[in-house]
Every structure is written in C-alpha cells, then in structure tokens.
Amino acid sequence: MDMKSYSEMIHGIVVPANLSYEERAKRYQPLMDFLRAETPEELYRFRCCDEKSISAFDQDQIWVSPGYKMNDDFDTLLYFDREAIKSNLRTALQSENFISAIQSIGQGSEIPAPAQNLFPSEMLEAVRNGISQMDQTAITTAIDQFYSLCTNEIDINDTAIRQIIQSQKSIKFACFSEAIDSAAMWGYYAGSSSGFALSYDFRDGHYIKCDSCPNGNQCPNYKNSSLAPVVYGDNRFDATVYATWLVQQQITQKMLAERNAFALYSLFQDMIPCPDMFMGTKVLLHKASAWSHEQEWRLICQSSSSKFKEEEFSYAEKRPTAVYLGRKISPIYEKILRHIAVDKNIPVYKMHIRREESSYKLYPEKIS
Fold first, then answer.
1. Maximum CA extent, the chain
2. d(CA 140, CA 134)
3. Which of 51, 54, 109, 200 has a 20 to 30 Å separation from 265 between CA atoms?
C-alpha cells in the first residue's frame, strides 16, 4: 500500500454539503476504488478475556466507541489555528468590497436576496435607515464592534470546538490491526497475551450486517459505516477551514437565540453550508507516527438514531472469520472460546514464540 498516495487522496477529498448525491459519490469514488483494491484479507481485533468481550464474540457484535474513550489524548481532537481565523475575519471585514457593500445598502442599493428571504421587510428597511445615518467613522466602529464580538466568541468556544468530534456520540468507531504477529498489540490490548483476537474479512464492502439492506432505506434512521486505514504523521491534521465554519455556526446560533429567532437557524445553514462533510472522518483517521506500529484500520459507524446518539457504546453486527488465542490464555477461557468457534464453524489458532526465530514476532498455529 502506498501510504503517501493514500494520505494525499484523503486530504484531497472535499465534500461540501451543497453538492448533489451524485456529486458527493463522485468525490468519494477514488477512496472507494482504493479500499476495494487494498483492504486486507484479514483485519484483527484484539480483546481481553472478560464477559463483555466473550459475549460480543458469541453474538457477532463489534462494539464501537466515541473518540473520548480512546487511549490516545489526541484521538479525534480537532486542531486549528485560532489566530488565523481571527486574522481572516479581520481581513474580510476591512476589505473595500465589504465596506462598499455596507455603504451601498445605506444609499439605497438592493439588499441581497438571501437576507430578503429570511427577514421581514420592515426589519431590513430599519437596517437600511440605520446605515444611511452612519458616516465612515460610525461604520468602521460598528465593524470593529462586530469583530470584537466574533473574536470573543472564538475564544469562548475554542475548547468546545476542538472537542466537537471527540465528544459526540453520533460518530463511533472500532479499531483493527493488520498485524496478528505483533507482540505489542497482544501486550497492549489482549491482556499481555492472555486474551484473544478475532479476524474479520471486510473486502466485500458490506462492513456490518445493517449495510446489507438492498436499497439502504428500510429503516427510519440514517445509518452509515465505512472502513479505512489510519494515516500516521508527525504533525496534526489542520482543520482550520472546518473550524472557521463551526465558529460561524456558533456565532449565528447565539445571535439568533438572543433575538428569539432560533427557528431561522436551518435557513442560515443553507446559506453557509458545511465546507466539507468528510472532515469528521479525516480527523478521525489521523494519528501520530508513534502509533504506526499498530497498522490500524478503523470501522466508523454513524447514525441519526436517538438511541445511538444517547449510548456511550453501540454495536454493529459482523461475523468473525477466525479466532486467535493468546499464548498465555487460561485453560478455561480457551475451552469457552473454542466451543464458540465450533458453533460458528470457524478455525482456531494459538499464538507461539518460535525459539529458533530471531525476530520479535508471535506466530499462529492452527489447533482446530
């Protein structure tokens, strides 16, 4: 897999909210083609031997979690340049075109159509009259006041915006690895080799059972799942453009709420659509190079279901293709897992250290 090309492709996919379904599909197509060709035959999920993990194996459940439950402090945490947002706002407000547009409204020019559709004519006329009575100094002062209001909101909402993906429960994910032979993975996530791992075949593109609906709309709630490898790097993914849009949404919501006009928010969303609906996934797929030994892929699940959004943990259904036992697993857990594997008619492997091998690898040997 050419990870450099994959990373460039991920960064290059931009999906504005105002695109048609067909246009969105076209934007995603390079990623779909890549995954069709590059998804491994097996991806592995490492588990400790406890009641929840064994029950999930028995019931073909893959449990997905929100970003704040991950063991990496940076996982799904939005990074953006706050001062760049302020600077861009200042530049836009101080531009000759913006100031001229404000002045022309006061001089009788037509108010932009979106504003006419949103607000009563009496209100717009009052705004026009107010501007007409303002000289250059007053207009500059009003713009400075608006800039101060916006920058204050940026500072107030900084932490909330950075955590907006990490904290929400409407997008959850599960982690898999390409490396069944990794002693680190068995040590970190499988009880120091006393647990087990399950292998999954995601190559058919139907990542979870719910995806198998013939037309995808048999349920009242929107559902979506996707699978992709993690991009590792030394610098965090820059989401300044996306954060700028989030700031705009926060300021708009506050201004409308203060004027008892929050019902108009959906109309403002149409006027300022999300610049990239793929951004949440991009942020979720970036991790520090220090984690690259995990060779991680992520199954990402989203749903509009109120239950899904309220749950801290949710599950997707997917049958594993094999079970791998840690080399230090207890006899009773080995017996339980092998019994479940027989019911599912899937093979069982057990990990071993080959004394004659010089590499730091564990090797699976089929035992049933």
1. 89
2. 9
3. 109
